[in-house]
Amino acid sequence: MPENKKPGNRNFNGPRRNSSTRPGSNSGGSTPRTRTNRTANSTRGPRNQAASSANRPSPQVALPVERPDDEFESQDSLYSTGPEQPEYVTIAQITAPFGLRGAVKATIRTDFPDRFEQLEEVYIAPPGAANIVNWERKQLLSAKLQNDKVVVLRFEGLTKVEQVESLRGYNVAVPYSETVPLPEGEYYIFQIIGLDVYSTEDVYIGKVVNVERMPANDVYSVRGPLSKNDVLIPAVKDIVKNIDLDTGRMTIELLEGLV
Question: Which of these, 98, 64, 10, lies nearest to 177 by C-alpha position?
């Protein structure tokens, strides 16, 4: 699941710190998140890592880059319960070799770029890899931010440009268990995509299939039986009343004009 970077993400400079702490503890980590303005009733609730909030929602990732692109082949699939928990969450995507000694340049897909400073190992896989067996563990020798969008990575055992040429486009991920905990009212994009959406009157609206990150707030695209086109739900507290990840359900105020 990729992680689109949110404005204001912190950068780090300088040498990578040695740490006995496993990556992903409370140090930064993974995928963009989307915010949904908090309400008294809302529960804390993007395989990319991103977050969303109703106050100032922003998309999550999904795709562990990750925004999972959910496609539905039958009407029955619209009624499946909740998003599936990913095995891995994408925090970067390799774009090209860097230099001649096996380093690679990668686009950051996380709202927590600081986490690269403490990572000791990551998992890599070709784009679209869905099965856990497709992911290969790699020890990190170094991770240096070039700016707030690009990180240069060096993997153990890869010392020549010829060895990393084939890694172009590969996703760089961490296990789901190592994603950074979010404050109440913020969610990763991959947690939002796949939720079943109901009105406050218990009318089924559909399933969240995408999260668009807008300057003012996130917008959830909901696909279901009430409309031929996707229903666009602004992630604001006046509309999004509750998100319950345990049941895979989002409750909204179905205002006039939304459908």
Answer: 64
Phi, psi of 134 (to 5 degrees): -75, -15
Distances (CA, A) of 228 to 49, 206, 211: 30, 11, 18
Contact between 191 and 45 under an 8 Å Cβ cutoff? The reply is yes
Most confident of 57-66, 70-79, 229-238: 229-238
What phi, psi does 231 have (nearest 5°)? Answer: -85, 130
Output the six-digit token pair for 20: 């006995």
Sheet holding 218-223, edge to edge: 231-234, 218-223, 204-213, 196-199, 249-252, 240-244
| Extended beta strands in the chain, E state | 33-36, 51-53, 88-98, 103-108, 121-125, 136-145, 150-155, 171-175, 187-188, 196-199, 204-213, 218-223, 231-234, 240-244, 249-252
Direct distance between the N- and C-terminal alpha carbons of the chain, in angstroms, rounded to an integer: 29
Q: If you search the block for the tokens 């010829």, which residue do you land on?
A: 162
27-36, 71-80, 152-161: segment of lowest average pLDDT: 71-80
Question: Which among 173, 176, 62, 188 is positioned nearest to 116, based on CA atoms?
Answer: 173
Token pair belonging to 27: 């140090």
pLDDT in the model for residue 243: 96
Which residues share a beta bridge with 220? 211, 233
